[in-house]
Design a protein that fits this description.
Elements: H1 2-9, H2 19-42, H3 52-74, H4 77-88, H5 96-110, H6 112-124, H7 126-132, H8 150-153, H9 166-205, H10 210-247, H11 254-262, H12 271-276, E1 281-282, E2 284-286, E3 289-291, H13 294-299, E4 316-317
Antiparallel strand pairs: 1-4, 2-3
């Protein structure tokens, strides 16, 4: 059992595996901060009404975070690789911990924007003040002996607050913002500690050396870039060939004519080849040589799972 747990910790290398991921996550966070600031200035407007305040405050924090999370899931290629793997192979080549941690990687990257949104909302405090104002106990404030109904307390965040609550309004807002910002800093601390622990586990449990891991990241980036560019040229040349067969000619500009003449394409790749290079991939070795991706495995004509009898699943590949 201990060996199984140790082995599957190696899959934590999925998280923050390359500088590109860190930079991309940083850009997402910055974009989310800007969006949150714009929302606070333009769209946020506390209703100043019991029950509505609470629902509005929760919605102002939760709904945009949920939308950002779903967008992050949809834009993550790992998710669709998992879907392709499930539909074609049923994840039969992936262990349960590997599948769980791959899904965790997808969720982790998708959580960057919603966590940033929630933290900035809490640090600003406006949504929290709006949602919590009606639940305040005026008796906890100095020199306040009057009992106030929720209808009055709900107007604390508003500029047209009743005159009888002005005596403790600023103190109430200050106290609620303190609570909100405290929660925000706690979330930041929890996220930072989690990332630190994951990074430690990644380096401690990685089955490959630091230099090979760096090379692997460069290979993934280069393969994706070259594959996308080549696929674009191939698609254009194939489309030009088919259009020419239909019309008898094809209208091409100078650069496109050079592409067609330089890279003749007769037919598209058969579906079995596309299926072979699509889906979740586990880093494997074949006779001591690494296989860095499904495309690499296909190019080497390796069948099956590409592992020797004494081989091991080492780390999930983020493709």
């Amino acid at each position: 059992m201990a060996a199984l747990i140790t082995e599957n910790f190696k899959f934590l290398a999925l998280f923050f595996k390359s500088k590109d991921v860190m930079i991309f996550n940083g850009l997402i966070a910055l974009g989310t901060v800007g969006s949150q600031e714009l929302f606070s200035v333009v769209a946020f407007n506390c209703p100043c009404s019991p029950e509505r305040n609470y629902l509005y405050g929760l919605a102002a924090i939760g709904v945009p975070a949920l939308v950002l999370f779903l967008i992050g899931i949809m834009l993550n290629s790992h998710m669709w690789n998992m879907v392709a793997e499930c539909s074609r192979r049923g994840l039969k080549n992936c262990s349960a911990p590997a599948t769980f941690l791959l899904f965790g990687s997808v969720v982790g990257r998708a959580m960057v924007a919603p966590i940033t949104w929630s933290v900035i909302s809490l640090l600003r405090g406006e949504a929290y003040v709006c949602s919590r104002s009606e639940f305040l106990n005026p008796a906890t404030f100095p020199d306040v002996t009057t009992l106030y109904v929720p209808n009055v307390l709900a107007r604390i965040p508003c500029k047209d607050a009743p005159s009888d609550i002005l005596a403790f309004r600023e103190e109430a807002i200050r106290r609620l913002k303190y609570e909100s910002q405290l929660l925000g800093w706690m979330v930041i601390a929890i996220v930072a500690c989690t990332i630190f622990l994951i990074k430690c586990l990644q380096h401690c449990c990685s089955p490959i050396s630091h230099h090979q891991e760096a090379y692997w990241a460069q290979y993934r980036s280069s393969e994706k870039d070259l594959f996308d560019r080549t696929a674009g040229v191939h698609a254009k040349v194939l489309a030009a060939s088919n259009v020419k067969q239909f019309f008898g000619f094809v209208a091409l500009d100078k650069d496109e004519k050079e592409l067609v003449s330089q890279y003749p394409v007769e037919e598209a790749q058969p579906s079995p080849q596309w299926n072979e290079i699509t889906g979740v991939y586990l880093y494997r070795e074949n006779k001591g040589f690494p296989l860095y991706s499904r495309l690499h495995k296909w190019a080497k004509k390796v069948v099956g799972n590409g592992m020797e009898q004494d081989g091991r699943e080492m780390a999930l590949l983020a493709v």
